[in-house]
């Protein structure tokens, strides 16, 4: 873990790099801690409300901590018409959480994403950096186990 | 340049595009390396394994090609590696079962180039992808890379370069189709400095992935295109804005920039000409609206990505208020070829209202899904029925959706339309960035319209009211119709809202947002009325308005549907007609899609 001041200095305290700084913090901490917002606000002389605006506008940034494994289910058009909703329904059942939520043990965060650009192998989901193509509800249980998830049922 | 490959050396090209990686191609690639290094045979030393960008036919990945023998293998697994090495690398035989086999005729093809999927294609923007290792700049140079930059720097004046691009007829490939040469000229003639060159790699249209593929598979062609432009307009700094979801594109693009700098194609004193040009990469933040040029620039400036009104072109006041050229990834990839081969060559390809080629991502309910590049003017029928191989399960074609959320759904009667910038607009859609989503009789057009409106209402930045509130109201109405609460007056209400949004929205997101609704109403009014008046979803998608029935006369009792049913709702003995327990059925439609005897059909849900 490095500290928020290092991140600000890495970008030479230049305001035009606010988004990049926030992305670095997101990557490191899995969310944007309140303390980081305070440091950025003070160091860059930017009002907190502006930072809040940016942090809530961009989907890649999150104010709440995310799970160790982030599951993104693609709901782009190609996946949608190849029944991505069934995948999401099944994952909700398996993990006991809804899209946008994190499981209580902090293991999984479930998200929908608009298109992963892998439409040719739809429906697609990504866990962390690994892509899974032509996913069926039946395959899900094994995939989740592979990631160290407990079977909730 | 020690890495250059002599003609005799065998090349094993393993596709490592995102689609093939998801199918396990990295392991296949590693297995080739492991096996070859274990061989003591002298011939083994003469073979190189390369990981390449996307070959397009992701459906049949992982794809492995053997050069110079021109053999293409599909769906290759780790277990196949020793046999491929033995037969095709150390020898010149082929492994027949791994070749491309035609779905209908069963005929096999030694080279992928002879298959229906690749035969009708003409590659300009995708020329190198699948043929080179994107991490190796020498691969790009061997295929003529950076010769356009040399020509631009030492043989052509900036005016001549702009003249070539103008006369070539190249128009932007990102959606709006603005003439590229005119854009460059405006920027060159604008007062103010510094000037900027931007590559828009924030590919947001769901169903389109050509930009991802180019950034991953041939990053140097983008760098070269941008550098040529920087020379023509007098810019010293450039930006590539890459969508946050595209990790591999980010990695390959960054590595390529570093290599290009080392080789003197970027940075200070480019190729000894004195020219300076640097490229920075900006990661997108995950907002669809940032694909809009002015929102993208706001995002690069570190602000919330909201568009601005475009009374003044970005070529006069763009990034940080300075003259800026912004082009899409695919547009940039075309530039080096046009400079090398001349405007006459490019202008001779394509149709009246669109020169050159366009990359389309052919996806949805079509047999061969993937990326295809064809001359503009190719018909939709050729794309879907020949290159795409027709509809999965030989079901009935219903519509093709083009242009992403800003486009529309085109019905069968317009399949013979020749695709260019003008033709698709004449039927209410647009070419957009090139997504083509094929839909069959199991796709509900009302639900598709709802899907796009939901997408856009989430992605609207909220700055202007017509877009923000118009979308919200449209979504309400459409949700009502798909739940069986629709009224006859809803259709006029939707059209009225659509007119208002087209007139009054600030940017293209809002102006084009009603297109999916307007086109589905225009071409599929019956389906809307069926939902509203009869409370029935004929495609069997809107769950409250549908149920499934098994036709006892057609059912052979094979039991496949019973196995596929996730809800245990199907009853019946083997070889006797089955039936569906309506109270358990979750209306997912797995059974109807898997039945080979077409014995299952949809019925009105309201009757239950």
Blueprint (SSEs and pairs):
The complex is a heterodimer of chains A (153) and B (608).
Chain A: H1 4-10, H2 18-29, H3 34-44, H4 48-57, E1 69-74, H5 77-81, H6 84-95, E2 108-113, E3 125-127, E4 130-132, H7 137-146
Parallel strand pairs in A: 1-2
Antiparallel strand pairs in A: 1-3, 3-4
Chain B: E1 10-15, H1 18-22, H2 25-38, H3 42-45, E2 47-52, E3 64-67, E4 71-73, H4 81-89, E5 100-101, E6 108-109, H5 116-119, H6 137-142, H7 147-154, H8 158-168, H9 180-189, E7 196-201, H10 210-217, H11 219-233, E8 237-242, H12 247-262, E9 278-283, H13 293-300, E10 324-328, H14 329-341, H15 343-347, E11 350-351, E12 354-355, E13 357-364, E14 370-375, H16 380-387, E15 397-402, E16 408-411, H17 423-426, E17 435-440, H18 445-459, H19 465-483, H20 490-504, H21 508-512, H22 515-523, H23 525-533, E18 546-550, H24 560-564, E19 570-571, E20 579-580, H25 590-594, E21 600-604
Parallel strand pairs in B: 1-2, 7-8, 7-10, 8-9, 13-17
Antiparallel strand pairs in B: 1-3, 3-4, 5-6, 11-12, 13-14, 15-16, 15-17, 18-21, 19-20
């Amino acid at each position: 873990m490095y500290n928020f001041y290092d991140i600000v200095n890495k970008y030479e305290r230049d305001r035009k790099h606010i988004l990049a700084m926030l992305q670095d913090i997101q990557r490191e901490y899995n969310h944007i801690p309140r303390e980081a917002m305070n440091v950025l606000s003070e160091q860059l002389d930017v009002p907190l409300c502006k930072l809040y605006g940016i942090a809530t506008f961009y989907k890649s940034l999150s104010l709440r901590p995310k799970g160790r494994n982030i599951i993104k289910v693609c709901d782009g058009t190609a996946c949608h018409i190849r029944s991505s909703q069934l995948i999401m329904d099944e994952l909700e059942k398996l993990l006991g959480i809804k899209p946008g939520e994190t499981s209580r043990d902090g293991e999984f965060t479930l998200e929908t994403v608009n298109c992963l650009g892998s439409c040719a192998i739809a429906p697609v989901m990504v866990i962390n950096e690994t892509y899974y193509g032509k996913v069926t509800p039946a395959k899900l249980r094994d995939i989740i186990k592979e990631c160290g998830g407990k079977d909730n049922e | 340049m020690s890495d250059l490959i002599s003609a005799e050396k065998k090349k094993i090209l393993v596709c490592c595009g995102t689609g093939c990686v998801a199918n396990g191609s990295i392991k296949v690639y590693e297995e080739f390396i492991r096996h070859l290094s274990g061989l003591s045979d002298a011939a083994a030393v003469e073979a190189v394994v390369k990981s390449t960008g996307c070959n397009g036919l992701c459906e049949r990945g992982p794809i492995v090609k053997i050069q110079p023998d021109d053999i293409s293998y599909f769906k290759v697994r780790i277990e196949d590696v020793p046999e491929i090495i033995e037969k095709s690398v150390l020898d010149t035989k082929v492994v027949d079962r791994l070749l491309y086999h035609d779905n209908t005729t069963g005929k096999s093809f030694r080279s992928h180039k002879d298959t229906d999927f690749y035969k009708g294609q003409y590659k300009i923007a995708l020329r190198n992808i699948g043929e080179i290792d994107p991490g190796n700049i020498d691969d790009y140079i061997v295929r003529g890379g950076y010769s356009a930059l040399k020509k631009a720097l030492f043989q052509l004046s900036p005016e001549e370069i702009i003249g070539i691009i103008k006369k070539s007829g190249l128009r932007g490939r990102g959606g709006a189709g603005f003439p590229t040469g005119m854009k460059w000229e405006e920027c060159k003639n604008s007062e103010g400095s510094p000037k900027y060159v931007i590559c828009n790699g924030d590919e947001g249209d769901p169903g389109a992935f050509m930009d991802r593929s180019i950034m991953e598979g041939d990053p140097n062609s983008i760098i070269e295109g941008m550098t040529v432009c920087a020379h023509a307009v007098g810019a010293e700094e450039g930006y590539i804005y890459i969508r946050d979801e595209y990790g591999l594109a980010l990695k390959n693009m960054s590595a390529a920039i570093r290599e290009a700098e080392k080789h003197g194609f970027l940075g200070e004193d480019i190729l000894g000409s004195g020219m300076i040009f640097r490229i920075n990469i900006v990661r997108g933040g995950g907002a669809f609206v940032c694909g809009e040029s002015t929102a993208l620039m706001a995002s690069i400036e570190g602000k919330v990505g909201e568009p601005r009104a475009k009374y003044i072109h970005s070529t006069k006041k763009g990034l940080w208020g300075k003259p800026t050229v912004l082009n899409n990834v695919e547009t940039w990839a075309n530039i080096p070829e046009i400079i090398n081969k001349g405007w006459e060559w490019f202008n001779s390809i394509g149709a009246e209202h669109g020169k050159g080629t366009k990359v389309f991502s052919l996806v949805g309910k079509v047999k061969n899904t993937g990326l295809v590049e064809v001359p503009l003017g190719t018909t939709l029928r050729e794309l879907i029925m020949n290159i795409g191989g027709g509809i999965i399960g030989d079901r009935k074609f219903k519509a093709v959706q083009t242009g992403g959320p800003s486009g529309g759904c085109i019905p069968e009667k317009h399949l013979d339309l020749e695709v260019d910038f003008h033709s698709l607009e004449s039927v209410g859609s647009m070419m957009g960035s090139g997504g083509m989503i094929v839909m069959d009789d199991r796709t509900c057009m009302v639900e598709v319209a709802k899907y796009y409106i939901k997408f856009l209402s989430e992605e609207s930045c909220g700055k202007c009211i017509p877009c923000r509130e118009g979308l919200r109201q449209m979504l309400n109405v459409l949700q009502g119709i798909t739940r069986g609460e629709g009224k006859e007056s809803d259709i006029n209400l939707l059209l009225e809202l659509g007119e208002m949004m087209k007139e009054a929205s600030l940017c293209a997101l809002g102006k084009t947002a009603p297109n999916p609704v307007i086109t589905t109403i225009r071409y599929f009014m019956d389906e809307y009325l069926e939902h509203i008046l009869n409370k029935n979803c004929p495609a069997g998608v809107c769950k409250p308005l549908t149920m499934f029935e098994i036709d006892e006369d057609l059912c052979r009792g094979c039991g496949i549907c019973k196995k596929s049913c996730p809800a245990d709702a199907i009853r019946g003995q083997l070889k006797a007609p089955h039936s569906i327990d309506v109270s358990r059925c979750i209306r997912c439609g797995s059974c109807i899609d898997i039945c080979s005897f077409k014995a299952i059909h949809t019925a009105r849900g309201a009757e239950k």
